[in-house]
Design goal:
Layout: H1 4-13, H2 20-41, H3 72-75, E1 82-83, E2 86-87
Antiparallel strand pairs: 1-2
Helix pairs in contact: 1-2
Length: 93
């Protein structure tokens, strides 16, 4: 069971100021969450195979193949602003 003191301690560790009223409320809410997990522990999963993902996916990455890159002119073809062969952007200070 999570107590008000536990909530205050975690708040102190996280450098979050929690007043007493909120600490009581958070403790109650966190205990409700833990009670839901206890209900899940009661479910019979004896004959259920473990799953790591509900959809059977395989690696969708493409093969890493070296190929010729874009030329400088081709890379700058769609930009609205370039200068001396480079992308031109706003000054950021």
């Amino acid at each position: 069971m999570i107590t008000k003191e536990d909530v205050e301690h975690v708040g102190w560790l996280a450098r979050i100021e929690i007043d007493e009223k909120d600490a009581d409320e958070y403790a109650s809410q966190l205990n409700d969450v833990l009670n839901h997990f206890e209900q899940l522990d009661e479910v019979d999963t004896e004959n259920v195979p473990p799953t790591y993902h509900v959809i059977d996916l395989v690696n969708v990455f493409r093969e890493d193949v070296a190929r010729e890159s874009l030329t400088q002119d081709k890379a700058l073809e769609n930009t609205s602003s370039s200068k001396e062969g480079y992308f031109k952007s706003y000054r950021i200070i």
